[in-house]
Design brief:
- Helices cover 0% and strands 53% of the residues.
């Protein structure tokens, strides 16, 4: 069974930066598309960013494009989300997800999920 563990969440002021990490174990990490999603009590889980196994393909939600960067270090079985120019609207629980078949942006297509890490952006 693939396990994903997020870390790096916390409290940050608006305009600040934060980097999230997702450590994977139990699978062929380098062949998985990896994604970041976020969720609040008022909204469904939504796509944030995704990266292909080769890291040659990257997708971003319009709301974070230009501010967030997804990357991966396959030798460490780790994917990252660098978040800059954070806004209060970025406050959410952020989840790491793996897709064993492809890189994609949909919640349903992802096969494995982490437990999430809280990001809170204060004004």
């Amino acid at each position: 069974q693939v396990q994903l563990v997020e870390s790096g969440g916390g409290l940050v002021q608006a305009g600040g930066s934060l980097t999230l990490s997702c450590a994977a174990s139990g699978g062929a990490f380098s062949s998985y598309g990896m994604g970041w999603f976020r969720q609040t009590p008022e909204k469904e889980r939504e796509f944030v960013a995704a990266i292909s196994g080769s890291d040659r393909i990257k997708y971003y939600a319009d709301s974070v494009k230009g501010r967030f960067t997804i990357s991966r270090h396959n030798a460490k079985n780790t994917v990252y989300l660098q978040m800059n120019s954070l806004k209060p609207d970025d406050t959410a629980v952020y989840y790491c997800a793996a897709d064993k078949d492809r890189v994609g942006t949909g919640v349903q297509e992802h096969d494995y999920w982490g437990q999430g890490t809280q990001v809170t952006v204060s004004s």
